Amino acid sequence: MEHRPDNRADIxxxxxxxxxxxxxxQVGLPTSGRRRVPGLRREExxxxxxxxxEWYTRLEKGHISGxxxxxxxxxxxxxxxxxxxxxxxxxxxxxxxPTPASRRRRKAVDVPPRVQWLLDSMTLSAAFVTNGxxxxxxxxxxxxxxxxxxxxxxxxxxxxxxxxxxxxFLDDDSADFAADWDGAATTTAALLRAExxxxxxxxxxxxxxxxxxTLSPEFRARWAxxxxxxxxxxxxxxxxxxxxxxxxxxxxxxxxxxxREAHSLTIYTAEPGSPSEDGLRLLASWAATHEPHPPTPQSxxx
Length: 302
What we know:
Blueprint: H1 8-20, H2 42-49, H3 53-60, H4 69-78, H5 83-95, H6 113-120, E1 126-131, E2 136-139, H7 141-146, H8 148-151, H9 164-170, H10 174-177, H11 181-198, H12 203-215, H13 217-225, E3 234-240, E4 244-254, E5 263-269, H14 275-290
Antiparallel strand pairs: 1-2, 1-5, 3-4, 4-5
Helix pairs in contact: 2-3, 2-4, 4-5, 9-11, 11-13, 12-13
C-alpha cells in the first residue's frame, strides 16, 4: 500500500491565492481601516463560510483530509470559485483521504481500433485524442497535417509522439504557429494543474511538470498562479506554414477508454463558407493525397 500524496502545499497555495483575489466589497463586507494583506482576511472567510477561524486556518494550511462536502461547498461559495476551481478543490480533498493511493494510480492503455475508426470517419474536421498529460495518442490525417509543426518539433518523445505542453513551452517556434501563444500557454498550464489535482500520484505527470518548471520560466510563472482549467472549448487561430492563417473552433469531449486513464477527444473545425474552411479543405486534400495514414502512437510502458 502506498501513502497518500502530501498535497498540503497545493491546497495552501490555492486557497491563499483565491482569498487574496477577493475584496471585501465583492463579498458584501464593509471596508474601513488599513488592511495589511490584499484580499480577505482568514477570519472573514471563516465567518462567511460558517466555520471557526481556527478551523479555516487549519484548512488553509493544507489539512483537508476528512472535511465534509458541505464545508467544502461553503468555502467554495465564499471564495467565489468557478465550476473548474470547485472541482479542483474537491479533487484535492479526495486525493488527501487516507485510502490506498493505488486506487487512483494511472495505467496506460492502448487506443482501441474503434476509436481510430471514429477519427478516420471525420474527413473535414481535425480530430485527435490526448491523455491527461496532453500527449497526442491518436489522430486522423487532417489533425496530423494541421498540427504538423508539433509532429516535426524536437520536443516529441522517442516514438514521435507530441505533447502540447512541451511544444508550447520548450519549442520557440510554437510562438509562430499560435496566433495567441500566451492564451495557449496559460490554458495548457491550467489544464495540467487540474490534472495534478486529480492524479497526484501520476509519476509521468510529475516528471513532465518538473521538466517544464526547470526549463521554462514562462511555465513556472503560470504554474505559480495556480489557475485551473477543466472544461474548455472555443476558438483558436493558427499561422499554418502551408495553409496560412486559420481560425478554428474546437471542442474537447471526454472519451471513456479506461477507469484509470483519462482521455479527451478534441475536434477542430471551421465556420462553413469561411476562408478558414477553404484552408482546412486544402489541408484535407493534401493529407489525403500525400500522407499515408499516421500510425497511432503507442503509450510508453510505465
